[in-house]
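Researcher: Structure prediction, please.
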Amino acid sequence: MIADRHSKNTTGKEIIRLSVQALINCGVGKCSKGGSPIDTLLFIEKYGLPDESCQNYAAIDPSK
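Model: Predicted structure follows.
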């Protein structure tokens, strides 16, 4: 959602790919609780979110 919003705001001139895996690694918006978009957005506002090139999506939860 954030990457899409950014692309729209820059009329498609800037495309960013944010790291979903970074959110999973940090335990943001726990899936066991149904996930929380609000918790995720608050986390990103407070700590930021790296580009996908920093942490590629691996589809695993490292805490398990």
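Model: Residues 37-47 form the longest helix (11 residues).
Researcher: Thanks, that helps.
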